[in-house]
Amino acid sequence: MTRPTLFLTVGLPCTGKTTAARRIEIERKALRLTKDEWVKALYGHENPPSAQDVIEGRLIEIGLRALELGNNVVIDFGLWSRDERSALRKAAADLGALVEMRYFALTPAEQRRRLDRRQAEAPHTTWPMSDEELAEWAATIDIPTPGELDGSEPVDEPPAGFATWNEWRARRWPPAVS
């Protein structure tokens, strides 16, 4: 029996994460969990940060259960922080699953071109994003290291104040909107 795989898509908006996640879903028979589809379905034009965190957390729990049942899973979020990726790598390892991480990067000009095209062709799939927001987000993403991408780097210890990654996950992805 083969071990299930957790696929993590990492990158800023409009860099190709969802396109890749859809391909992984088909080629690897993976359950695709795309946060933006859920936020759009539930909130329409709104994009409340507190709801995003809860939706991500719920999808992660579904994904971890699917891994436990032996299914491949692709998490289609930005996963901009190393802590998020470490928490998911550790959760997958605890379930005996493999992890494959994919990082997507584009020049700001190409990212803007893709976003403008998406806004024109499929506005129901995204939200408006300013150049200032894109630049701010680009400055905050923790770009995965080569060792993180190929799995050769061990998972970091949980951040100060957290005994386990499960405890950190519960704080990062709360169970309900407060």
Describe this structure in words.
With 178 residues, the protein is α/β, with parallel strands linked by helices. Helices cover 51% and strands 13% of the residues. The chain contains 8 helices and 4 strands, in the order E-H-E-H-H-E-H-E-H-H-H-H. It has helices at residues 17-27, 35-43, 49-68, 82-94, 108-121, 131-140, 146-150, 165-172, and strands spanning 5-11, 30-34, 72-76, 98-104. The protein has a 4-stranded parallel β-sheet with strand order 2-3-1-4, sandwiched between helices. The termini are far apart.
Which features characterize this protein?
alpha/beta, 178 residues, 8 helices, 51% helix, 4 strands
Question: What is the secondary structure topology, with strand pairs?
Answer:
Blueprint: E1 5-11, H1 17-27, E2 30-34, H2 35-43, H3 49-68, E3 72-76, H4 82-94, E4 98-104, H5 108-121, H6 131-140, H7 146-150, H8 165-172
Parallel strand pairs: 1-3, 1-4, 2-3
Helix pairs in contact: 2-3, 4-8
The quaternary organization reads as single chain
What sort of overall outline do the alpha carbons produce when their principal axes are compared? globular
For the largest beta-sheet, the strand count, sense and barrel status come to: 4 strands, parallel
Low-confidence stretches: none
* Helix percentage range: 40-55%
Question: If helices are DSSP runs of H or I spanning 4 or more residues, what is the number of helices?
Answer: 8
Helix and strand content put the structural class at alpha/beta
Average pLDDT across residues?
92
- C-alpha Rg (nearest Å): 16 Å
End-to-end Cα distance: 42 Å
SS elements, strand count: 4
Order of helices and strands: EHEHHEHEHHHH
Strand content: 5-15%
Spatial order of strands in the largest sheet: 2-3-1-4
